[in-house]
Amino acid sequence: MQEKHNLIIVSGPAASGKTTLIEELMNYYMAHFSKPSECYLTLARERNIPMQSAFSEVSREDAEELYCSICKSHRWVIGDQHLAIQFQRDSGMAVSNKIDSNVNEEYVPAISKEFIEKLKANGVDVFLILLDGEPEVLLKRAIRREQKTGHTVRNKTVEEMTREVEAERKIFDKLVAETQIPNCAIDVTNRSKQEVYLYAIQRIHEQSGKRNDGPEWTR
Known about the structure:
By secondary structure, the chain is an alpha/beta fold. The protein has nine helices and seven strands, in the order E-H-E-H-H-H-E-E-H-E-H-E-H-H-E-H.
């Protein structure tokens, strides 16, 4: 029987709590952390491509092949990935934490149906989580985070944050409809970090049949 591997992708707009949820899930599943976008930077370094050109000179096919190989090397992999990206703005943030001023740049999908199918063909079960929330709440969180950590706020107005939230929802719905992968969307607006985590674990167990693949949650 072919060995099965598991990938949980945590998506959502800025300041929706992706990092916090990932840390909890990694502890629960004793998982390896790897995000799809990092594959572009890894291949750029290997090929001596300038970091600022990584997302334009490294092909999507090569980056996806590398990510599949990472997933096949571990039983559990967890990573975060914005589903909706602004190519120029996000490239700048990934390389230097600086963001282009063109807030009206079009949002495009970061993950394709073909990528999900490629993962499945390589024996990787995928579960997709969208952390959703009210734009006003997420913006306040993002501003607090910037003040505390210096992490750049990509969208600085409620209107800009609303565009990001709506783009993430739209691409999530489309990807789920096209691939039928197990998934859940969690509104984080009025949920505590613990409530988000427990809800995610419950949904993963219910939809993926992975109830016995992780330790019991005893905290």
